[in-house]
Amino acid sequence: MSEIAARKPATGRRKIELDPRLAAYKGVWVFIEHERGVTHSVSWELLGEGRKLADQLGVELAGVVLGPPGPVMRQVCTEAYRHGADLCYLIEDSILASYRNEPYTKGLTALVNKYQPEIMLLGATTLGRDLAGSIATTLATGLTADCTELRIDMENRSLAATRPTFGGSLLCTIQTLNFRPQMATVRPRVMHMPERDEARSGRIVEQPLCLLETDIVTKVLHYIADDQQNQAQLAYADIIVAGGRGLKRPENFQLVWDLASVLGAEVGATRPLVQAGWVSADRQVGQTGKTVRPKLYIAAGISGAIQHRVGMESSDVIIAINEDANAPIFDFATYAIVGNAMQILPALTEAFRHYLVTARRAS
Amino acid sequence: MHIVVCIKQVPDSAQIRVHPVTNTIMRQGVPAIINPYDLYALEEALRLKDLHRGRVTALCMGPLQAEAALRKALSFGADEAILVSDRAFAGSDTLATSYALAAAIKRVQQDMPIDLVFAGKQTIDGDTAQVGPGIAKRLGLQLLTYVAKIEALDLEQGSITVHRRAEGGVQVLKTSLPCLVTVLEGINEMRFATMDDMFRAARHPLKIWDKSAAGIDDLSKIGLKGSPTIVAKVFAPQPKAQKAERIETQSGAPKDIAATLLSKLLTHHPQLGREIAKRAS
Q1: Residue spans of beta strands (DSSP E) within B53-101
Q2: What's this model's pTM, rounded to 2 decimal places?
């Protein structure tokens, strides 16, 4: 991109005039995902990213909040301002108490058609993907999934959304030039959480839903909350110990659990181990599993194939243990231990245990 | 009962390699497989067929080589297989793809009404999870994504009840047929095809539809023309500037390596040390 720009005459980069039909769309929107009293943190991460895009475009950043009537949704709006939004579009209706595709698609589509944002971002969660795909089709516009970088191409005032392709082996930058809004989803923990600013406030623009419960075909019979104790909370873990095929035998995976229990860490694994049934699918890290961003990631017997790498490479510190000195994981780990994971893991467990005992005594 | 299962033929991503010098995808010798998530969708459809009788139609959009994926679907027990294939589809993004598949499903419907459309939760090559919702919107079907379990299917009443994975829990949803369901991995275990099944599948006539056979009249909705997104550039991920710092000791004993690592960690990342220590108290 920069190469092309450099070759242009010095008289300046000519901005391409936007078609007035497209120029009518202004502002950056972030869909604030809220379900059953909990706002998904990916929405705040997206507001942080959306703030940068809006500032570059010189437009407002809006949060879009859909939910049941009551004080909770107003609090969500307040939180949205504190994370960077200038205003919130709010649709309150008891029909929106639980997520369902039809009323959410209709409500959000109506908002888009009325207020015409140029960019709309959603979290790549089960809810966000369900909703984004439906809205993009209804509006016949472009949608780019699982973006890892969002930028504005000022030459044509368009969103340049970069995402991994071919299982993360390559990256591609995707643009929607002739349609608005430009839509993108981003996985949780890919973007940084913005600083929360208590002093920030904003305004609410309300819109009615104009639907009747009898019009909605799909009914929520009930909701089974996950047993938090048994579900892996990988995506938000600060420390993760993960194992791969280098552990050789299922019983050796216990060594990963041992270290994790000393560190109070979550346990992760590569896809082959999940497929072999050594660990449950909710512990899979990588392209078809979870994206994680812990402060410490200990990878034992993991070669670092791209499918795994895309799910964990933004960890702050990566300790990799592998017998093969040429394993790709050493290209992006922080610390490399070339050795047998079955011997190193127990030694690490012991070392951390000792450190913790000392730390406890000191305090 | 009639279920259409959308399947896609994809390169086995576990075997894709990037050329270390040119940074291009080395496709040679990479086997093509049925998108693993779609297999769960196919199996779930076949299980419903076992219970309720009826027909399962496998539908695939892709180049002519994708015939292999459909033959495989037939060998597992699909009754019919349709390959929607046309050069005009080249360059389709998810919006254009959902248009073509929705048109083909409408065409299938003319021969026999459809109760359900099944698909995997996403593909392993595109990873977008956008085509399923797209088809549902285009056909005006109710949409149930990330389905972990089909609890009940009542054909007389025309309703289906499913468990849908949400963030932090599972929604139990009931909706009317016809509807589109995308299934989650692990919902079932794929059956094996017997030798007889494979012979039957090999002999089975395959329907190959070009754009007009699939009932597509608006050419501005398919291929590159029908795709609002454009790929502006493709590039290799930046390698990290620095290689990992290797932890070595003279003795090479695991105990010494662990101690060296720990002291490095605590010296260079004191915050991490505090984070770990916090867990002790």
Answers
A1: 55-61, 80-84
A2: 0.86
